[in-house]
């Protein structure tokens, strides 16, 4: 089941055309990922393991303009865990409607903060990430 985060569109999110600027969607997606990780206790886990998430690819599709005052709902869930990377799928929609504003697939690796290198997703790390595929 996806984790849900709500964000209200404010005036400072808008561009000259009075809809959410395309770069702001990346911030909305990041806020929702942080909320998801905090709610699941993963922030502490990764801090203890001295691992950082490093985004290596974002594919985003802009579907519909969001405007001032709307409440957006961001659904966040893992879609794939591989040997070296994992993918989180996120969908931004207008809360209370079927209107999809944007959707994205975010690929990340786990970086060892001491060595600065990506680590294989195996053992305890694999178990931790794989549980999100079934949540």
Automatic annotation (TrEMBL):
Q: Which PANTHER family match?
A: 4-HYDROXYBENZOYL-COA THIOESTERASE FAMILY MEMBER, LONG-CHAIN ACYL-COA THIOESTERASE FADM
Name the Gene3D superfamilies for this protein. Answer: Hotdog Thioesterase (3.10.129.10)
Family label = Belongs to the 4-hydroxybenzoyl-CoA thioesterase family.
Protein name, as recorded: Acyl-CoA thioesterase
- Give the keywords, sorted: Hydrolase
Protein species of origin: Rheinheimera riviphila
- GO MF terms on file? fatty acyl-CoA hydrolase activity
Keyword set includes Hydrolase:
yes
């Amino acid at each position: 089941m996806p984790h849900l985060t709500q964000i209200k569109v404010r005036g400072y999110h808008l561009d000259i055309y009075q809809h959410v600027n395309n770069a702001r969607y990346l911030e909305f997606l990041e806020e929702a990922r942080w909320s998801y990780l905090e709610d699941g206790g993963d922030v502490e886990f990764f801090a203890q393991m001295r691992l950082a998430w490093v985004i290596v690819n974002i594919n985003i599709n802009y579907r519909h303009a969001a405007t001032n005052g709307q409440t957006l709902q961001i659904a966040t869930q893992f879609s794939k865990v591989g040997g070296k990377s994992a993918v989180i799928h996120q969908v931004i929609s207008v809360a209370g409607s079927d209107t999809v504003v944007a959707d994205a697939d975010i690929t990340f690796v786990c970086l060892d903060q001491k060595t600065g290198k990506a680590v294989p997703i195996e053992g305890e790390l694999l178990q931790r990430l794989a549980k999100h595929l079934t949540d």
